[in-house]
Amino acid sequence: MIMYFTKGFLLLHTLLVLLLPQFDALQDTLTSSKPIRDGDLLVSNGETFALGFFTPGESTNRYVGIWFYKAPEQPVAWVANRDNPITDTSGVLSIDLHGNLVLYGEDQKKSIWSTNIVTNSNDSIILAQLTDVGNLVLFLNETSEVLWQSFDYPTDTFLPGMKLGLDRTTGLNRILTSWKSKDDPGIGNFSFILNTNSSSPELFLYKGNILWWRSGHWNGIGWSGIPTLSSNDSVMYFNLFNSEYETSTVWGLRYPGASLFSRLVLNGSGSIHRFVSAISDQEWDILGTVPLDRCDNYGKCGAFGKCQIQNGTEFECTCLTGFEPRSPSEWSARNATSGCVKKHGGGIRLQE
């Protein structure tokens, strides 16, 4: 989620209501002998993130998620069973005999969600730990070999240190997908990916199969369509890794010692917001958004069209001089993606 930075901060209103219990003792690690049940929590060592069961918005369903533990509004950063909710409080998250993290509901013989890895190791030496960067890591206790991690399976939130893009060794492609709504974390209409089919990768935002926005190509120091991210004044930075092993991007804070919470979120309306909150603050601020406005959407006015925001009521698309809408009926419905063609009598009609 790449951002244009603004001088003013906007207030983020609460989108989620988490039903969280209180605890006497905190732990950051799950073992085969110590599962967590609905009402239990894992809390990272620095108490930055928590993992447990939650109910979003006005829903009554229960999900396993990771959220900011002490940040304002405790926003959710990752959801395990996003398309398979539990309808009661019978949920249990455990490490099974095969070394997988498995989520069960009332039927303890049928899993609702699983990490679905294959390992020959004994489950007694496999642990799952919630780290202070918000990553749930399943690993071998003796060697610290990572078997699975939630950072490889993001939902709608891009955290500092998390990668988007393709691991060419495993074939894993990490993408963001929006929630269906503030009440339903299921996979929504929008996806945010790193396009790896080019020698010069760029970030694409899709609405279904339609390209909605793009960042411009990587120019060595940033994304060409977002020059503010190449500036030293930006509080965030992106890096690109492009080799025979991977094509991926990662972001971080230029001042890692600062007492800040930060996240990039793809919402259900197709906007990517960069949020920041000081540890002492009681609210999140929006530091930037893409697409910036309606004219920032990819191909908004089609071929030979131009886009200019006039006011809240006028259509922003017009044709270049000497051209007219290819489909007047679509333009009257404010859909200009078919673009413009040469006016009749004005010479040879241009083809797209």
From TrEMBL:
GO terms for biological process: recognition of pollen. It holds the Pfam family B_lectin. Gene3D superfamilies: Bulb-type lectin domain. Residues 1-25 form the signal peptide. Residues 27-151 form the Bulb-type lectin domain. Keywords: Disulfide bond, EGF-like domain, Glycoprotein, Signal. Residues 291-329 form the EGF-like domain. InterPro entries: Bulb-type_lectin_dom (IPR001480), Bulb-type_lectin_dom_sf (IPR036426), EGF (IPR000742), S_locus_glycoprot_dom (IPR000858). Transmembrane segments: none annotated. It comes from the Eukaryota. Residues 333-352 are annotated as: Disordered. This is Uncharacterized protein.
